[in-house]
Amino acid sequence: QLQMQESGPGLLKPSETLSLTCIVSGDSISSGSHYWGWIRQPPGKGLEWIGSIYFSGSTYYNPSLKSRLTISVDTSKNQFSLKLSSVTAADTAVYYCAKEIGFGDSPEYFQEWGRGTLVTVSS
Amino acid sequence: DIQMTQSPSSVSASVGDRVTITCRASQGISTWLAWYQQKPGKAPKLLIYAASNLQSGVPSRFSGSGSGTDFTLTISSLQPEDFATYYCQQANNFPLTFGQGTRLEIK
């Protein structure tokens, strides 16, 4: 059974870099067919797609974050990661990793989600 | 970016009621639409994809319809576990975007 667990610091100061890793078990990122993505949700607000990555390293990024964003994959560890630089209070959110449904050749819908991790940006 | 607008923002209903939530895209997205359910403190759960396809394991009381710019999620007979927030999401263009959510509350 697929399990996805986000890990990383829960508290950051403004201007620091947010680094999160999604550890995947019960499925292999290298099996292909699926993109793996990051979605965030500010407290009490809606969902925002951050970006997605394929096992080959091919990425799709949200243009609103692209200048600060790097998503990478480590198939040997069966995990993928998010780095978001120069964070501000506006980046405070629950960050989810998710497995895309895998019907097409680009990210579409997210069929499996991690539990999410709250990242707070505060001085 | 394609803007997704859900209505209503919140709705109160009773167990056994039929409820419909709508989602409108700012431009045509064919049937590239999903619906998610989110309960407090939990991750979203995929209910419907490609506008009308029921995700495996989702009860048949959930159904989706629509194409182009207008979509609906219908719950045919509300169960206690259905009270949650529902989001639509388009997958026609990047960036993928979500609606603002519809909160379904117990009357």
Largest sheet of chain A: 7 strands, mixed
Helix-strand topology string of chain A:
EEEEEEEEEEE
* Largest pleated sheet of chain B: 7 strands, mixed
Strand-pairing-aware structural class of chain A: mainly beta
- What's the total helix number of chain A? 0
pLDDT averaged over residues of chain B: 97
Strand content bin of chain B: over 45%
Largest interface: A-B, 23 and 22 residues
Structural class of chain B: mainly beta
* Count of distinct strands of chain A: 11
Strand content of chain A is: over 45%
Q: Helices and strands of chain B, in N-to-C order?
A: EEEEEEEEEEE
Q: What is the CA-atom radius of gyration of chain A, in angstroms?
A: 14 Å
Amino- and carboxy-terminal Cα gap of chain A: 40 Å
Gyration radius of chain B (Cα, Å) is 13 Å
Question: What is the average of the pLDDT values of chain A?
Answer: 96
Contiguous runs where pLDDT drops below 50 for at least 5 residues of chain B: none
Please work out how many helical segments of chain B DSSP would assign. 0
Spans of at least 5 consecutive residues with low confidence of chain A:
none
Outline of the structure:
The complex is a heterodimer of chains A (123) and B (107). Chain A is mostly beta strands and 123 residues long. Chain A has strands spanning 3-7, 11-12, 18-25, 36-41, 48-53, 59-61, 69-74, 79-84, 93-100, 110-113, 117-121.
